[in-house]
């Protein structure tokens, strides 16, 4: 049995607190908004939903206790519809789609919602491990020199692939230029849902654009920023680092949510739903947890092999821009055409609400394929701990 995507929607991505438009919006409400918009757009009977799978990284506080269940209820789904919250770090939203597709393919699910949310304003990154040993003594024994924060991994990648500061900044500036052009041309319209919320303090807020896109960003402006992750301890351990990673060539702190409806072709036909894409191939890989973010390279090779396709068969790529050094290393290893990668801009500009990003880039990839007339799209996303998901979809 196949699995098809009926629709995908996302909120605009808000910048972090204190000034972000979505700061102060409860993550359950943010998540529920995307789910509710998806149901409204598809017109599907919510009693037919087999499961709601939601990606969330900071599963603490307002994003704890299987928050996807509360989001589904807040969205108005019947109490009989189950929900689950998963964490594959930055790939959580994409893994939610993988699980939904696998459930549909197996016949265990008829209709499933795959989604993701992250309110990084409410739950700052790393909150769930603050003051705690998240790794334990056995990990310390296996990696006696210790692992490093993602920013240091991004620096290690830049050094290993001989990437210059200017290359990182040029890629970041191009991301902002592409995203700005996409907004001006209305290329995000099909994936966005009108977004108006009541904050937890009772005030109203509305957001109709991705807040962290900066149309005036230039390489010279980015070049004036200081390294974001320099630390004497890491500098002593890794003397090869050039300290090229800055806030400008990394993804920002964001809030946002996205949701997708997945089913099979037969059910879609029975319900009068028009699929937008077929989920062609899926994979997930593990990689070096020190470099941490390089898994997208073997994941791309693996998913292409599984699909029986070549890189040249792919019409559009979405490669999550957690750090520009990661995408540049991927480009160097794969030889992909840069003009096909993140055509409408990437996370450096649009933003990276970590639990939602895997679902957000699917919504964008669908839009890009429809806008360009492309057949195959490949998306991949790096994840903490040395993991990566990859997926190929086929436009229908």
From TrEMBL:
One Pfam family for this entry, by name?
Answer: Thiolase_N
Report domain Thiolase C-terminal positions: 274-395
Q: Which residues form the Thiolase N-terminal domain?
A: 4-264
Q: Molecular function (GO) terms listed?
A: acyltransferase activity, transferring groups other than amino-acyl groups
* Record has Transmembrane helix as a keyword: no
Identify the keywords attached in UniProt to this record, alphabetized.
Answer: Acyltransferase, Transferase
**Catalytic residues of the enzyme:** 90, 352, 382
The family this protein is said to belong to: Belongs to the thiolase-like superfamily. Thiolase family.
Q: Which NCBIfam families match?
A: AcCoA-C-Actrans
Q: What is the name of the protein in this document?
A: Acetyl-CoA acyltransferase
The organism that produces this protein has a lineage beginning with: Bacteria, Bacillati, Actinomycetota, Actinomycetes, Mycobacteriales
């Amino acid at each position: 049995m196949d699995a098809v995507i009926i629709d995908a929607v996302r909120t605009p991505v808000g910048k972090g607190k204190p000034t972000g438009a979505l700061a102060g919006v409860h993550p359950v409400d943010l998540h529920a908004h995307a789910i509710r918009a998806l149901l409204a757009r598809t017109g599907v009977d919510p009693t037919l939903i087999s499961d709601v799978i939601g990606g969330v990284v900071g599963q603490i506080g307002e994003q704890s206790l299987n928050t996807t269940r509360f989001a589904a209820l807040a969205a108005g789904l019947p109490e009989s519809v189950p929900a689950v919250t998963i964490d594959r770090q930055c790939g959580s939203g994409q893994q939610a789609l993988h699980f939904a597709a696998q459930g549909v393919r197996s016949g265990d699910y008829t209709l499933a919602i795959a989604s993701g949310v992250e309110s990084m304003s409410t739950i700052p990154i790393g909150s769930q491990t603050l003051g705690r040993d998240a790794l334990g003594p056995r990990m310390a024994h296996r990696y006696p020199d210790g692992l490093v924060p993602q920013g240091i991994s991004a620096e290690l990648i830049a050094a290993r692939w001989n990437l210059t500061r200017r290359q990182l900044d040029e890629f970041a500036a191009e991301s902002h230029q592409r995203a700005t052009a996409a907004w001006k041309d209305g290329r995000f319209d099909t994936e966005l849902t009108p977004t108006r919320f009541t904050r937890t303090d009772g005030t109203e807020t509305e957001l109709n654009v991705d807040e962290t896109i900066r149309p005036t960003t230039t390489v010279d402006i980015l070049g004036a920023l200081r390294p974001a992750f320099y630390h004497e301890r890491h500098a002593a351990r890794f003397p090869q680092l050039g300290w090229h990673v800055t806030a400008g060539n990394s993804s920002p702190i964001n809030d946002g949510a996205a949701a997708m409806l997945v089913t099979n072709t037969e059910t879609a036909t029975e319900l009068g739903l028009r699929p937008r894409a077929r989920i062609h191939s899926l994979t997930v890989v593990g990689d070096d947890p020190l470099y941490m973010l390089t898994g997208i390279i073997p994941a791309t090779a693996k998913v292409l092999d599984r699909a029986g396709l070549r890189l040249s068969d792919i019409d559009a790529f979405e490669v999550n821009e957690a750090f520009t050094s990661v995408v540049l290393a991927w480009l160097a290893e794969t030889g992909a055409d840069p003009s096909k990668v993140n055509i409408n801009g990437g996370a450096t500009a649009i933003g990276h609400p970590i639990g939602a990003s895997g679902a957000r880039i699917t919504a964008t990839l669908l839009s890009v394929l429809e806008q360009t007339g492309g057949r195959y799209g490949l998306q991949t996303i790096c994840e903490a701990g040395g993991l990566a998901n990859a997926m190929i979809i086929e436009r229908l």
